[in-house]
Design a protein that fits this description.
The chain is built from seven helices and seven strands, in the order E-H-H-E-E-E-H-E-H-H-E-H-E-H. The strands form two sheets. The protein has a five-stranded parallel sheet with strand order 2-1-3-5-7, with helices on both faces. Strands 4-6 form a two-stranded antiparallel sheet. The protein is of the alpha/beta class.
Length: about 180
């Protein structure tokens, strides 16, 4: 019998939620024995996932055209899509840039910042163009399960993924939710 496929990807944000996948410790090994991991920054398997993924997990907010493309592909290729962490669910810290125009945000990051190296906005097309505003995954594509937290607890991630892989509804509540 074929194992269900799971794919994870990281959009705009700090990557803390993806690192929380590792916090599951030994349980992640047991979980990974039950699935085929088709893509994940944690294992350096690059997006986009192939077709027929049972569960897709997106962490981070949508900041640019590359993030938007990845979110749309994940939605198209995954039966169930999970928004993992506050950035994916609410826009989180990356959405703070919404207080500025795109031009102002780029200038603050690359030209007037004290950490600026050459004082130029990068023009690499692989970086994608900033979207007009940063937004949650659910603002751009339908999401089946929202798992908030910054980051969500290891128990919440494990319980949510286990339920989905077993064909049960995943409704994180109570002790599974963590707000810092």
């Amino acid at each position: 019998m074929a194992k269900p496929k799971i794919a994870t990807d990281w959009l705009g944000g700090c990557a803390g939620c993806h690192m929380s996948l590792l916090d599951i410790d030994e349980r992640i090994v047991a979980l990974l024995e039950l699935v085929e991991l088709t893509s994940s920054p944690v294992t350096d398997l690059k997006h986009p996932p192939e077709e027929g993924v049972a569960v897709g997990v997106l962490e981070g907010a949508i900041n640019n055209t590359v993030n938007l493309r990845v979110a749309r592909q994940m939605r198209q290729r995954c039966k169930t899509l999970v928004a993992l962490g506050d950035c994916a669910v609410f826009g989180g810290v990356p959405a703070m840039r919404n207080a500025f125009t795109t031009k102002e945000a780029l200038e603050r990051a690359y030209i007037t910042s004290e950490s600026t190296v050459d004082g130029k906005v990068p023009q690499d097309p692989e970086l994608g163009r900033l979207t007009k505003r940063c937004c949650s995954v659910g603002e751009m594509v339908p999401v089946d399960v929202n798992l908030p937290g910054c980051p969500p607890s290891a128990d919440a991630i494990f319980n949510t993924l286990s339920a989905l892989l077993e064909g049960r509804a995943a409704n994180p509540t109570g002790d599974d939710l963590k707000y810092d």
